[in-house]
Write a structure and sequence with these properties.
Layout lengths: L1 E4 L3 E3 L3 H8 L5 H7 L2 H6 L3 E4 L2 E6 L3 E11 L3 E7 L5 E9 L5 E9 L6 H23 L1
Antiparallel strand pairs: 1-8, 2-8, 3-4, 4-5, 5-6, 6-7, 7-8
């Protein structure tokens, strides 16, 4: 598997609070609807439902990431359903000082080495965008 780490983002909440939020996706639907229109637009194509998050992926269609791992308060892992290749997404959390949390998204993807130069940049963009989704939600 190839691992693509997204940019780490710092969220202005304690690690325990962020973990509680990212490990229970059922609460996000109402939260997204309450965001200002500008922030909702950034989340276009992302939908939260139960223990999964659905998103539109260019050239693939809709991907569903279901929570498959929980290690309180530092890690939440998601497995993709409907992906043409084995795909996992994870969020690693760490305290970033008083009342702040560092969140680092990672994508693990099983792709042949010869395809990495062609799609690696898009996968990296996706990893970075995933961090932006949570930044939008917790600002």
């Amino acid at each position: 598997m190839s691992t693509y780490s997204g940019k780490s983002v710092t969220l202005p909440r304690p690690v325990e609070e962020i973990y509680a939020k990212v490990s229970d996706l059922g609460q996000y639907k109402d939260l997204v609807e309450a965001l200002p229109a500008e922030q909702r637009e950034k989340l276009q194509g992302v939908e939260f439902e139960g223990d999964c998050v659905k998103m539109n992926a260019p050239s693939i269609g809709q991907l569903v990431f279901r929570i498959s791992e929980r290690t309180a308060p530092t890690h939440v892992g998601f497995s993709a359903e409907g992906s043409p290749v084995p795909l996992k997404l994870s969020l690693d959390l760490a305290s970033a000082g008083e009342g702040s949390t560092s969140l680092t998204p990672k994508i693990d993807l099983e792709i042949p080495a010869m395809l990495r130069p062609f799609i690696g940049g898009k996968i990296q963009e996706a990893a970075d965008k995933f961090g932006d989704v949570f930044t939008s939600l917790f600002q």
